[in-house]
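Feature request, filed as a ticket because there's no other form

It would be nice if the structure record came with a short human-readable summary line next to the tokens. Right now we just get the raw output. Example of a typical job, pasted below so the devs can see what we mean:
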Amino acid sequence: ILGELAISFYILADTFFIAQGIGDQGLTALNLAIPVFNLIYGIGLMFGMGSGIRLSILKIENKQEEINQLYTHVLLFGLGVGMIFMITSLLFSKNIAILLGANRTVLQDTNTYLKTIMLFTPAFIVNNALNGLVRNDHNPALATTAMIVASLMNVLLDYIFIFIFHMGMFGAVFATCLAPIIGISILSLHFITKKNTFHLTKLKFTPRILLRISQLGFSTMFIEVSTGLVVLLFNKLILNISGNIGVAAYGVVCNVWMVCIALFNGLAEGMQPLTSESYGQHNTHDLNTLRHWTLSIAVVLSIIIYTSIFFNAGSVTSLFNKNNSLTLTKLATEGFRIMFIGLFFAGLNIVLSTFFTSIENSKLASTIILLRGVVLIIPIAFILSHLGMIGIWSSLPLAELITTIIGLLYLRLKYLKE
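Raw output as currently delivered:
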């Protein structure tokens, strides 16, 4: 949980410092570019979660050569995907910014953020992939340390680049891009410890390895990607309802939402190695216990977070409101109190999807993620947007609620059957 919270501060720190150093225009540009960051980060999570699950199972089966091939495939193909993003950035970043909805007012800042993030894609992917492997190689402390230190350095560099060196939007995104490089440096210490069980070896290209990693990591990736898709969709709808100030308000609410969601991602990722190990050992009792306690903790966290946000929505908004815009305050406060009802269901959905992924039921996990990320949220958002911003804020909680009902019904029927 601490590690995921630290990672989420990559964007929250950008949001805060951009709000203070650049203002509403910077917030709008940041929120327009966020979907691309979600895609990049999600691909890294796919490699990390998928390979981590496979590593846990292969270790139980004592298949050392397959473990080394797994690591080699993940590293090389992660770098390959990163190179594709780098080339795309150099050729088309401005076009992508325009497609995301950037107008003349925010185009330059949006393009700056996009181009820089995409140039550092290999670092983001390798950092997430390596973190998943190290965590599942019985070294979760180092994995968490890497995430926390990288995040703290991101916050420090944000302040230095924006307020001391006056580097504007480039300073904010450059600080974010240096964080995964710091994380990789710390994770590299794993290779000199006795806990390390994976090494680079001569590549024997096996598509099956990449396919299995992708299947197991898809649901985790889609959590991030679907978040980006929702941001993209909402940006387009809000621009027609409230303009740039509405997008800025949504950016504030959305980025705080991502920090809260990080709690549930961390909880689920903490459950994953234990669940995968119990699954590999055919230990049904521990599987049931892990699922029960993790879902229960998710409910408790939801109650604590929503209560805190509900009574402090105005204060939270003021942290990102440099110009003291009354419109921004009104829209964001309303958004916090309505949209954050969805936390009660989002936490359960994240835990359920990760649980099913951990026991190699990637189809069901993907179904849950697809429901909450695309299948439900898109039509609901379009329909409720006719009610204005209240409809926008209500879309996500409704989609999460329906997904939770479906997921829990399946879980109940499945275990009653067993």
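Something like this underneath would help us a lot:
The longest helix spans residues 243-280.
The CA atoms of residues 157 and 175 lie 5 Å apart.
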